[in-house]
Amino acid sequence: MKKYTFNEITYYQFVFLIMGTQIGAGFLALPRVLAERAGTDGWMGVVIGWLLSVAASIFLVKTAEKYPNKTVTDILTHLFGRVPGKLATFIYMLYNIWFTWIILINAMLYIKGWFLPNTPDYLIMFLFSIPTFLIVRNGLRIIGRYSELVFYLTIWVPVLFLVLLKDGSFLHLFPLFKVEWSKMAASGLPAIYSFLGFELAFFFYPFLQKKEHAVRGIVIANTLTMLFYLVVTLACFIFISPDEITGYNQPVLNLLKVIEFRFFERVDMIILNILLLIASTTWIPYFYCGVYCSSQLMNKADHHSHVPIFLGLFIAGTLIIHPTWEEFETWQHWMANAGIVFAYLFPAFLWMYSWGYEKYKRRKAL
Amino acid sequence: MRRKIFLCLSLMSLVISGCFDQTAIEDISAALVLGMDLDDQGDLLVYMSSPVFNKEAETKEEVYQVKAVSLRNSRNSFDERVMGLSSGSKTQIFLIGKRLLKMKNWDKYLDPFYRDPKNTVTSRVVAVDGAVKDIIFDKPVDKPRLPLYLTKLIDTAAQRNLIRRTTLQEFRGQMVDKGRTPWIIELAKGKRIELKGSTLLTKQGQYQLSITQYETELLRILEGKREGDYSLTLPVSSKAAHDKKTYASFSIPVLKVKKRVRYKGRFVFDINVKLKFGLGEQVIPLGVEINSKELEKNIQNQLEKDLNQLIHKLQKNKVDPLGLGLYARAYTYPEWKKNQDHWVDSLAASKINIHVDAKIKSMGTMR
C-alpha cells in the first residue's frame, strides 16, 4: 500500500530537505566552539563529524529501506505493537517540537541581539510563525520545494566568505595536527551536533520517489553541509587570529561585519536576514515532523489543524518565559544529547532489532 | 472570514513590528570622528565630531570635548550637548592622543566598539603625535569638513603605501595575537595637519616607536602586500657622475616576498624580497648615463641596507609589526610554544637575513 503517494518528493527535494535541516543558525557560533576545543585544528572536527554522520545516515536509510512505505512511527508500531508504538511516536513528537522551539528561540535571539533589541520577543516569534504556518500546513512536497528554493537563493553566501581571504593569513592554520588526538576528537563532538537533522530522513524516506537513490542523496546532503561548514570555519580561522577567535560569541558575524563595499556597509545585517531563510529550512521540517507525529497520535490523516495550535503555544511560551541566551544554551545542551540518541544510537539499534525481528518472524513462518 | 482576519493580523504585525526599534535619521548625531586623550591630571577626555545637517546652522559640524571614565560613559555627556543621539555606527576615524598611548592597556576603552553590534569596527585607528584637541578642533578653510578631509587623506595616502590603514577590527587582532604588535597610522599637526608615517606599539598597547613615511613604505614592502602604489626615491651613485646628488625614483609593479624561519638555538628568519621596478624619475646631470645594470645594483644595495637598518630598529625596540611571530608559530611550533609569551624578546635575539633582488621592468619613455 502506498500511503504517501500524493505527497511524493523528488530526489533533489530530499537532498535539500536534509541539508536545510542540518544547517541552522548554529553555524554562526561553530568556529568559536571548534576553536575552543582544538584551536585552529578545529576544522578537522567538521570532517570527523561528517564521517560519523554519514555512517549514521547510511544505517538510517538501510533501516528505512526494509519498510519502504512506512515512516518511523509506522515502523515502530509494526515492530513493537500498538501501545509502545504510540509511546515512541509521542517521544518523537516531543523531540521534534522541542527542536523547533529551540531553533525558533535561537533565531529570535539573534535578531533581537543584533538588530532589534527593543522589539518584544513574542512579536518576532509571531512574525516567524506567519510563513511557518503557510508552509507547514501543506504537505511535505511544498516543504521540499521551499527547501530547494532557499538553497538556490542562498547559494552565494559561501562565496561571500571568499572575499575576505585576501586579507587573512593562512599562517593561522599551521602547523596542522598541533593538538593531541583527544582534543581533536573533542572538537568532533560539537561538529556532530551541527550535523543533526539527517535523522528526519526517517520521516522523509517513504515520500521519496526514487528510493534506490536514497543513500546517495543523504550522503550528498551531508557532504554539502560539511563543505559549507568547512568554508565558514576556515574563513573565520584564516581571517581572525587564533588567539582572538574564542573571544567572539559568533565569529562569523564579526567576520561579515568587516566586509565593506563602496556602495554598502554592514554586510552582517544583510546576512542576518538571509539567516532567517537558512534557519527556517531547519525549523520548518522539524515542525512538520512534529505535527505529523501529533496527528498520528490522534489518528488523524490531516495534520494541518495542529499547526496553529503549536504555533500559538510557541508564541505564548515566549510571552511567558521570555527566553534568554543562557536558558537557550541549557536547552540546547539537552537537545544535543537527545539528538545523539535519536540520530546516531537509535537508527543503529533499530537496524539490529529489525534484523533480529524479521529473522525470528521468518523462522516462525517456516 | 478566517482568512481575512489572518491577513489583517499579519499585515498589522508586519507594520507595527518596525515601531519598537525605530530611530529617525534626523535624531542621530553620527560621530564621524572620535578621539580619546588624557588631560594633565591623567583623566580620560573623549572628543567627538559630528556633521550637522541644518540650513540654519552656520558651521556644519559640531565638535565636543568631555571628561568621562569610559567611551560609553562619554556618550551620555555628548547627548547632553549635541543635537541628536550620538552614535558610533558611522565612525570613520578613531584618534588616540600621545598621552593616552603612553598608558598601558588603554585599548580596554575600545570595548563598546567590539561589544555593541550597532557600532562599526571598520574605523581607522590613528595615533596623534600631540594632543587630539589640536586636530579635532582644527578647521582648515580650504578643506571640506574635518571627518571627510581626514578620511580622504588617510585612504589616498594608504593607496600610495605611505601609511598602513589599520581598522579597529585589525587592531584588535594585532593586540591579541601573541605573534605580532600593533602598527597604526600617525597623524600630527605642525602648522597644518599631516600624516607622519606610523606608530608602533608594544604588546600592552604602549607607544614605542614612530617610523617615517619612507620606513612605513619599506615595512609595507616587507609585509609583501601588493596593494596600491609604491613610490620610492633613492640616491644612486655612479662612477660617471661625481655629483653626489643623483637620485632615482621608481614604482614597484611586481613584488614577491618570501619569509622562511628555522630554529638554530635562536630563530633565524630569511626574507627574500624579489621586485621589479619601473623608473619614474632620474635626477642626474645631462650627459651622464647610468646603465641599467648599474641602476639595478644601486637600488638593490640601497634597499637592502635600508631594510636591514629598519629591521634592526624594530628588533632593538622590541616590536613586531610584521607579524614574524605568525611564521614562527606556523613553521617552528615547538619552539614557538616555549617563546610565545615573550615573543618580542625572542625576536630581538633572533637573526634576520634580508635579501633583495631588484630588476628593471620599465625605464619609461626616455632612454
Element layout with pairings:
The complex is a heterodimer of chains A (366) and B (367).
Chain A: H1 11-22, H2 30-38, H3 43-66, H4 72-80, H5 82-114, H6 121-136, H7 140-154, H8 157-163, H9 181-194, H10 201-204, H11 214-239, H12 251-258, H13 267-297, H14 306-321, H15 325-365
Helix pairs in contact in A: 1-7, 1-11, 1-13, 2-9, 3-9, 3-11, 3-15, 4-5, 5-6, 5-13, 5-15, 6-13, 6-14, 7-13, 12-13
Chain B: H1 2-16, E1 28-30, E2 33-38, E3 44-51, E4 61-67, H2 71-79, E5 85-87, E6 93-97, H3 98-101, H4 111-115, E7 124-129, H5 132-136, H6 146-159, H7 168-176, E8 183-189, E9 193-201, E10 207-211, H8 213-223, E11 232-235, E12 247-263, E13 267-283, H9 292-317, H10 324-331, H11 333-339, H12 343-349, E14 351-362
Parallel strand pairs in B: 1-5, 2-6, 6-7, 7-8, 13-14
Antiparallel strand pairs in B: 2-3, 3-4, 8-9, 9-10, 11-12, 12-13
Helix pairs in contact in B: 8-9, 9-12, 10-11
Terminal CA distance of chain A: 25 Å
Terminal CA distance of chain B reads 88 Å
Tell me, what is the CATH class of chain A? Mainly Alpha
Query: Could you tell me the mean pLDDT of chain B?
Result: 88
- Flag low-confidence runs of chain A: none
Mean pLDDT of chain A: 87
Describe the biggest sheet of chain B? 8 strands, mixed
CATH architecture of chain A: Up-down Bundle
Kindly provide the radius of gyration of chain A, computed on alpha-carbon positions and rounded to a whole number of angstroms.
21 Å
Secondary-structure element pattern of chain B, one letter each: HEEEEHEEHHEHHHEEEHEEEHHHHE
> What shape does the CA trace of chain B take?
globular
Number of domains of chain A: 1
Note the beta-strand portion of chain B.
25-35%
